[in-house]
Every structure is written in structure tokens, then in C-alpha cells.
């Protein structure tokens, strides 16, 4: 069987030659005794063994992973550990028993995370995530597994493990080892690990956020809904971290989250997205984006539905109040800027309002004429005829109202780029491209004579 398709149940049906391993001194007689009592036994018999001798079993499993490289045996032991933790997550604390203080509890899993087949990698990632998340945070000035400010121990540090996990997760999101399991496994573990501040820092530094954005889209199947939920959970956790928020502000995360919340009926998905909105509302230009994307009305629609989750209801109420406050504060130029930066240009009243252009023309100079540069990008790349027409019109308005409009627009090499649209198949695009070119040739002094 292809090892990429192995299941835990199939692996646990194997008979491993423990006696042979003892005779070749790969395991001790004590190990063999413990394994005989545990192996192929039901949970009802395993539970008391782990209650009584849990750390001893952890030591046995770690020793096997260190001393035996046979693939079938490695897979089997990883499946045993995974099943042990899945049945009772509190068993992860067994790895931190005082009797194991000299053991490198992370190294075998961290090594297998990169060297094993898919089954081995997946189990190693899940097990490492479980045990490192369960570690005691501080014990007499000493972190588990040899982590301390002055430690010279050679034991694998928690920082090494967290770095290794983030690297592995990002590599799976970029180039999945398994066509259907890599991404769900990586996101599942990431949603747990991001509770660690150090992981948030590592993930942002690894440029990991951009790998999450494509996964935010409406879902239908149970598996895809779970993946969507855990991805949005990652976004919510990252929304507490300023460096991540700064990065998110440069992505298309907001339109994607809005599409998800409009189309989802799964309460847990709507809850985590609403809580993300609530966190992002007060940060950067997110409020303007939310308003431009119609979130105030969407929140009203969501509030009218029969949700039962208190966190969701609280988030919707706070969003409603916050969006109303921001709607009052936002100037027309803020709204305009968000329209342009999102590429969502339409014929809203401000475009043809002379007072808007007179009052805000100097704002176009911000960030080295950023708005004009984005308008030119829209003219070069957009396939939306309305966006093309509005972009040409706005460029012509800038030419009319800014005293140095012709010089600025000429520096952007706009003439040839706009002239291409004078032969566009859409009449509205042609008309506004012509207006723009005429104003470019005439300049501000005569531009006011040209009307659309």
C-alpha cells in the first residue's frame, strides 16, 4: 500500500517483532515487558497502565524511535503515541514528568518531521504540537527540556521545536507533500501553535500569512468547512498581533472574509470571522474597507438570524456600534482611497462632485502620488469596464484640479497607457479615455471647458 494513504487503524493492526528487537539488544527486557502488557490491548486496559506507569511508557516509545529505524516500527510507535494522546489529550503532560528530565523528548519527532514518509511526518507534527502545547511554562526558573537563559544543555529547546514546526507547516502550505492531507494537517496544527507569541513572530517572518489568504473562501463539504474554520481561527489569533495586522492590511483578506461571512451558515465559522472583524475594526484602514465592502448591512442581516452563540452575538453587537461610529468619522477621501486601493471603482457620487476634488486634490500627493499609481495599475490590468472608465475619469479630474497635474501624470507615462483604451470595445471606457487624453494635452487652464 502507498504509505501516503496509510491510516492509524491499519498501522495498529501490525504485529511488531518486539522479541527480536530484544534479542538484538535494540530494546531492553523491561521495555519488552511493558510493551507486552500494552500492545494490542483495548483502551480499558491501557488507561490504568498509563495512569500507573505513563512516564515509563513514554520513555519506551522515545527509545524505540531513537534506536530502531525500520519504517513499519516507526509508524507503529507514532500511531501508538497519537492514539494515546487523541484518546486523552491530558496525557501529553506525561512527557514532562520529572523522571524524564534528562530525556530529549522532542528530538525524535523533530527529526522524523523532515525525514519520514507522509504518515510519519503527519503523526510527528501532530504529536509535537500536542506535547509542546502542553508543556509547563516555567519550573523553578527552568523551562522544560533544558530551556533556560544560562543552560548549556544539548537537549532540543522549545524554540528549536517551534521554529521547526513553523518551517514544516509553511513548506506544506507552499508545496504539499500529500495532495489532500498536507494543508488540513498544517492548518490544524498551526491553529493550535499560534497561541504561542513566539510562533506568531516566526510565522510572520516566514511570510506565512500570504499562504493563508487563498484558503479563505466559502466552503460546502464538511472537510472544507473545518479547514475554513481553522484558517479563520488562525486569522483571528493573528489579529491580536500588530506585526501580523500590518501584514494583513496589505492583503485581500477583508474581501475574502466578507464573502465567507455572507455565504456561511456554520455558526462557528461566522463567529470566528465576526470576532476577527471586531479586532481589526480599530486598526489601520480596516474600518474603511469594511464599510466599502458593505459590512454594516451584512452585520444587520446576520443579527436578524437565530444564532445561539453568545460570543457571536456580542461580536455582532460591538461591530454594529463600531461601524456606525467609523461611518461618521470617515471622510469622503478615506472612502475614495479605499475604493481605489481595493480596485472596487464604481460611479459613486464623489467622482463627479467638484467640491470633492477641490477639497481633496492635495491629498492625492500622499505617499508619492500612491492613488494615481494605483489608478494607472487599474488602467493597465483591469478587465472591469466600469473600473476602467472611472479610473480614466478620475485621472482626468486630477488633471483638471491639480496645478501640476500634467507634469505629474506625464511622469507616470500615462498618455500611451490611456490612449490604448481609446480603442476599447466599451463605449464608456472609450469616452472617458478620450476625455483624459484631451485634458492631458490641454492642461488645467482649459480642461474645465471639456465636459463629459
Automatic annotation (TrEMBL):
From which source organism is this entry? Panicum virgatum (Blackwell switchgrass)
Keywords tagged on the record = Hydrogen ion transport, Ion transport, Transport
The family assignment reads: Belongs to the V-ATPase H subunit family.
The entry lists its GO molecular-function terms as: proton-transporting ATPase activity, rotational mechanism
Q: Which residues form the ATPase V1 complex subunit H C-terminal domain?
A: 329-441
Q: Which InterPro entries match?
A: ARM-like (IPR011989), ARM-type_fold (IPR016024), ATPase_V1-cplx_hsu (IPR004908), ATPase_V1-cplx_hsu_C (IPR011987), ATPase_V1-cplx_hsu_C_sf (IPR038497)
Question: What's the source species' lineage?
Answer: Eukaryota, Viridiplantae, Streptophyta, Embryophyta, Tracheophyta
Could you tell me which Pfam families the record lists for this protein? V-ATPase_H_C, V-ATPase_H_N
Which terms in the GO cellular component ontology are assigned? vacuolar proton-transporting V-type ATPase, V1 domain
Q: What does this protein do?
A: Subunit of the peripheral V1 complex of vacuolar ATPase. Subunit H activates the ATPase activity of the enzyme and couples ATPase activity to proton flow. Vacuolar ATPase is responsible for acidifying a variety of intracellular compartments in eukaryotic cells, thus providing most of the energy required for transport processes in the vacuolar system. Subunit of the V1 complex of vacuolar(H+)-ATPase (V-ATPase), a multisubunit enzyme composed of a peripheral complex (V1) that hydrolyzes ATP and a membrane integral complex (V0) that translocates protons. V-ATPase is responsible for acidifying and maintaining the pH of intracellular compartments.
What assembly does the database describe for this protein? V-ATPase is a heteromultimeric enzyme made up of two complexes: the ATP-hydrolytic V1 complex and the proton translocation V0 complex.
| Name of this chain's protein | V-type proton ATPase subunit H
PANTHER family in the cross-refs: V-TYPE PROTON ATPASE SUBUNIT H
Concerning SUPFAM superfamilies, the annotation shows: ARM repeat
